[in-house]
Design brief:
Layout (H helix, E strand, L loop, with lengths): L5 E6 L10 H12 L3 E6 L11 H4 L10 H10 L3 E5 H6 L12 E3 L1 H10 L2 E4 L1
Parallel strand pairs: 1-2, 1-5, 2-3, 3-4
Helix pairs in contact: 1-3
C-alpha cells in the first residue's frame, strides 16, 4: 500500500435501487482524481451493477444526466479498482464472465485487510 490516502466504497444495492447506483462511482472517480487509492467493493446485490449491459440500462429520471455506464467508465479511467465478493456472485447467479472488465474477485480476509488499512470506508 502506498503513502496516499485510501478510500473503499462498499456497494450493497443493485438494480432495484437505481437512485443509489451512480453515486459510488462518481465519488470514487473524484477521490481517485485527488490522488487517493480507491476501490469499490460489491457485495450482496451490488454485483448486479457490474453485469454486462446493465450500465446502459440504468439512467437518470427525465432527459437530464448520464447513464450508469458513463460513471463506471469515468471511475475506471481514474484508476478505481472494482472488487467483488465471491458469495455475492453466487447469490446473484453470476460468474466473472457475466461481468464487465476489469473486476477482481476477493475473499472476506482480503476485503477486511483493505478496509482496515483504508482511511475511509463508505457504504451505499
Amino acid at each position: 500500500m502506498s503513502d496516499e490516502s485510501s478510500v473503499v466504497y462498499v456497494v450493497t444495492h443493485g438494480v432495484d435501487y437505481p437512485e443509489r447506483c451512480a453515486t459510488p462511482f462518481f465519488l470514487a472517480a473524484a477521490a481517485a482524481a485527488m490522488d487517493a487509492e480507491v476501490s469499490i467493493y460489491f457485495t450482496m446485490r451490488g454485483p448486479e451493477l457490474l453485469k454486462k449491459d446493465v450500465g446502459d440500462q440504468i439512467g437518470p429520471k427525465g432527459e437530464q444526466g448520464e447513464r450508469l455506464s458513463y460513471f463506471i467508465e469515468q471511475a475506471l479511467d481514474c484508476g478505481v479498482q472494482l472488487l467483488i465478493c465471491q458469495p455475492s456472485l453466487d447469490l446473484n447467479d453470476l460468474t466473472l464472465d457475466d461481468l464487465i472488465e476489469p473486476v477482481r474477485m476477493i475473499g472476506g480476509a482480503a476485503f477486511n485487510d483493505i478496509a482496515m488499512r483504508a482511511d475511509a470506508v463508505i457504504t451505499f
